Amino acid sequence: MTTLPITEPVAIVTGGAVGIGAAIASRLAHDGHAIAIADIDAANAEARARALRDAGHAA
Questions:
Q1: CA 12 to CA 40: how far, in whole Å?
Q2: Which are the contacts of 2, defined by CB distance < 8 A and separation ≥ 6?
Q3: Are the C-beta atoms of residues 22 and 48 closer than 8 Å to each other?
Q4: At 28, is the secondary structure helix, strand, or coil?
Q5: pTM of this structure
Q6: Contact 21, 14 (CB under 8 A)
């Protein structure tokens, strides 16, 4: 099996559009993770991802 080096850790945050999930996504992004947000409210999830990108993070 071949292993690939992880150059940028990725975090999938469920319920990441608002509340505690959004705070966790923000903290992980601040700590250098690329963020994938999964939420039942797609519009809020995209808005949160856009806010992270606007702040210079990968989301």
A1: 14
A2: none
A3: yes
A4: helix
A5: 0.85
A6: yes
Residue type, 50: R
13 neighbors 20 (Cβ within 8 angstroms): no
Structure tokens at 43: 């519009």
pLDDT tens digits for 20-53? 999 999 999 999 999 999 999 999 999 999 999 9
Distance of alpha carbon 45 from alpha carbon 57, whole angstroms: 15
* CA–CA separation, 37 and 42 (whole Å): 9
Q: Do the bridges between strand 34-38 and strand 10-14 make them parallel or antiparallel, or are there none, so unpaired?
A: parallel
CA distance 6 to 26: 20
